[in-house]
User: Fold these one by one.
Assistant:
Number 1:
Amino acid sequence: MISFLISIGALILGYIIYGAFVERIFGPDNRKTPAVVHPDGVDYIAMPTWKVFMIQFLNIAGTGPIFGAIMGAWFGPASFLWIVIGCIFAGSVHDYLSGMLSLRHDGAGLPELVGKYMGNTIKIIMLVFSMLLLLLVGAVFVTSPAGVLASMGGDKMLWVVVIFIYYVIATLLPIDKVIGKIYPIFAISLIFMALGLFVCLLIKMPHIPELWDINTMDTWRNAQINNGVDLLGANKYLSENSIFPIMFITIACGAISGFHATQSPLMARCLKNEKLGRPVFYGSMITEGFVALVWAAVSSWFFYNEGWRDVMPQEDINKFLAQVGSTNGKTLIQLFDNPAEVVNYVCKSWLGIVGGALALLGVVAAPITSGDTALRSARLIMADFLKLNQKPIVKRLMIAIPMFAAVILLLTWQNNNPDGFKVLWNYFGWLNQTLSVFTLWTITIYLYKKKKFYWVTLIPAMFMTAVSLTFIVQKIIA
């Protein structure tokens, strides 16, 4: 696990050295923050820094750094490289500067910031992109947790309704009433899960592919060809999905995610001091990178060193081996195209009863909390655009009711379409990274106008532009 441990050390140094460098470029000072200037008791509420950090971390994390890292491991140890470089030089910079830019502009949402520095036409485009992304998040993160809860008891549609009712409550109530109380607990649990798995990795020290094995990954993949049958299925998967740009779309949270720029303004409205921005915005992204690295290492062992044989019940192993290679038989990659199953097996096996509870939290609570803050962000973004004061509940409902109606339509379509979830998820992935492109170019223009060192965002902006354009062109051609 040499590459993994070096990557962990790199993240820590990235926060200490590069984080301080980016902070010095922006130049936070002691000016009063939006939460201090005009608290409204709903969205602008000064909260303790530790709580703001935990909420920001859970807002941006959810299941993203877990599921993305698991699926990204199919590309081999290149995933370690992308998580580390992406997190330090792109994702953390993106999150920190978008949050600080919001702080400097009275807690403004992403479309407002884009419009100010890139023009009104781009603002409208950004508004459409942001609302589509956030409504998609609200839709895709209802079905999967509802399915898990239904497997333990109750009807799936009943759980969909329960989760949706929670969405309504969390979106409309003041941020300190629901989100401010339960999010820190969920965030601590998510961090505890990652730390527990990290300790298990250190104890087990499994043999996993290293960065210098990138050019010899065929050896690892072919090791799981049994009697001419490819158990893993990586060769077929890689023939259909090139590392560039698919890996950079698959691993978003943990490296760089445009969704984060819609969340940072939520916490920009709750910070007491600008100088708290680096630990909250940059620090929460580095923490998310740690979670992603842990799951990248776990899943590398799971897929490439037959770790699945150690954590799956023998009955499940026998069922898999009996069907693989048959007509319509599934390889490991196809069997675990829902990463929640990997989380479930590993956590229960390595962390026992506590692990089972944390796995449940990861596949149920984390996506739900991503969904509710997505819809809260959507409400605030639309309120900024329409210039509607959100203190009166009536004005909150004016935006929320059409928004919830749109999510219900998406859920209905998804439920009636066999491939509905996959279709929505693919569009979510592309919209997510395209959003980061708009954000990075906006920050670059801001830094250029302020005569600051704009290369810190210009380089990742150009790279992510290439990723998003290549992905959509490939989809059109296909």
Number 2:
Amino acid sequence: MKKAMRSTLLAIAGIAFIGTGAASAQTLTPEQARAFVVGRTYAFSCFEGTTGAGRIFPDGSVAGTVTFQSQGSARFVRLPPNTVRVRTENVCGFVDGMTFEPCFEVVKTGPTTFRGQLAGVETMWCDFTRLGSEHQQVASRRKTRPAAKVASETSPE
């Protein structure tokens, strides 16, 4: 029963995937992924509800905002150089304190979109969409000043 349900869900997902024009999905080599992703700002949404936006820099450092499992407010995150790096045929993420180094397959799903999927695990993924130039800054370490209050003007009638 579970196998039939899984097959049905996969078939529906496959039809939806093809219906959205992503039939030309292309698994990127680490070099292709680097050229497609590094230095650009992307919004992301993951399988378990985590969302955010950020940028990977040429040195492998990462900066952006993240909201874990769609709970709470967005947090600024900055990870050091060499956090994102190439291992064999995958792009991997190194974070101090983790017991393993997760690696990802990068699949280009459109001209400005890709999916990062945990290597070998089809059910763990994040979808990324490139943000336009109007979204260049996704976070700041400095607290923003409150916007100046605009006094409402009333005209006598």
Number 3:
Amino acid sequence: MVKTLKKIKSRNFKDADKAFEAIKEIYQSQVDFLCAQFDGFSKGKVPKEKVQGFYPYLRIEVTENSYKKLKSDKKFSYGFVSKPGVYDTTLTRPDIFGRYMFEQIDHLMSNHGCDVEIGVSSTPIPIHFALGEDFHLEGDLTQEDMDDMPNLFDLPDLETMDDQIANATHVVKEGEAQPLALFTAPRIDLSLMRLKHYTGTKAEHFQNFVIYTNYQFYIDEFTKIGEDSVGKDGYTDFISPEAGARMPQMPAYHLKRDCGMGITMINIGVGPSNAKNITDHVAVLRPHAWLMLGHCAGLRNSQELGDYVLAHGYLREDNVLYHDLKPNIPLPALSEVQLALEDAVKEVTKLHGHDVKKVMRTGTVATVDDRNWELRGSVRQNQRFSQSRAIALDMESGTIAANGFRFRVPYGTLLCVSDKPLHGQLKLPGMADSFYRERVKQHLQVGLRAMEILRDIGPEKLHSRKLRSFNEVAFQ
């Protein structure tokens, strides 16, 4: 026997606002039911049967006729299905994704002239996700309670949380609807929990423009700028990681703006594993752009310490994404992002025309997984770098760009040369300290200005068709 809420009948809607209100009503009622049952359980009132709550679903059926009447603006890369059929997805956290849900539903209705169906899915909400990021489930339970949990409540199930849709490996079974979105509700909920764990901040604070860095110096400068910017230029608040006994592994800081159009900055530390980890989770928030700002090794003798590198291609030897996106898959440079970064360099440095080449080179960035790559045999590694025409090397940029491509998030990279190991200029303490003081502030100003330019372009133009496959989901 299973204890559930009284079944709610599915309903069809012609209005995106009303459809969203139905999603919110279903989700909240299911979560409230689960939380009330868990509260009783935690106080010794053990349910007599298993308790289940379920995610809401959104479904649309696009007929041959409605597909032929497709009204989509062909400049846009999302908001419509790729062929006639039945499509659906499960949904979660309308408190975070409310605007996003409304926009996606509105696009579907406008483009296809179809109703959408909202109802209760057959996908259970794991109790951990119903309780939310602030609840430590195991904190007040005895070992006996913990042993009873799987029999009384649904626990997270990895079978419902993979990235097959994003990876284009999902196979639609006979009679099954095709996916509307890249991520299922349980996959999203898992990432929301992980974001709180890794960054020390709740998902609700994340903004649509995200900067990743690999040094705390950038965060220190961003904090100064962020705190000073509150109340100016539309910025409303600055959020830092919650105070605690320890600093989170990848602390995030949020310069907030209405509708999530501010800037989030995350210190991801060093290495492709961290880069993949954090972008796997930020991607579910569907940001409008993310950039990598950090330090790199310059590979050309003509480069100077402090020069900028604008990546237009990547040699990927990160060894963390090869199962999801093979290294031989090209990552296209996105013109809007490239131009925004270049224009930002010109504005901040006040250099124009050919003079910009004095401080910035555009080329291929090599991303590796070995921090001590300099200690490898020089003939083998130099040949690889030479053949790829790489001009810089780091440990994160290629991974962040690849996950941007994989998850359809516009991406870009602007690095700063901090050492030149192949030319005898190693990163040593004295040199590094001097370099950090001189360059971090300007580099960050360039990154922030680039994000402002991208925000002015607008999300409809940013979400490039270069990031979409030939059989793509409708949701951005």
Number 4:
Amino acid sequence: MKKSKLLFFKIYEKFYKMVRKSDAFSAYCVDAFGEDFSQDGFSDIEQINRILEFIPDREEVHILDIGCGNGKMLCYLQKKTGAYIHGFDYSSKAIESAKLMQKERAEFLEGIIGEIEYPPELFDVVISMDTMYFTQDMSAFVSQIKKWMKPDGVLFIAYQEGDVVAKTQNGDTTLINKALRANDMKASVIDITRQSYDLLKKKRLAAQAHKNEFIKERHRKWYDILIYQTEYASVPYEEFSKKMARYIYIARK
């Protein structure tokens, strides 16, 4: 499939070129998320630290991040655990940055969801932070991931409804949960919609605090995008939660 036809591809190529040099965006990430992982979403440090409890304390642990971006989150997990890190992303700009950042016990590949392949039963933990929406067939991709996981492997998914995919009734009725069930993967679900609402407000304040820095860097359009993205939280939570939802799924073979 041509990358140019994939969801948000052109935007992300520009995004990862921008974050490579933007001190304003780095400072914004620290204020909004607690760490600079070049986030374009909701991956705050609390959500990332949830992953740590599922990473085994043993030799030769392998972690895969689906849609790894520039690899900053994986490098953080590696620093905490010593794991061998793997990541792929469709953005060449992101993978260029990832390869420059970390070369020891690390593999970063340019690839597309549904097309890239890994050896069977390689990974102890597979992570998908807001990337399952990018597949054309969610159930087929979950089947592929399952093959890559070790028998005791864990699939950690952060998943949002109401923007890229339509909101369903609850965490049990989402497209991703249906895909997990179709592949006989047992999953627990944590509703973090309230935390996401609060984070949106925090993101907005953080962006506003660094507005002048964005402008000085001639990155005003990225500041405007951040403000636009946080408009969802301009309404009371009760109204927000009718249109938006966010969940974490912990799935096992």
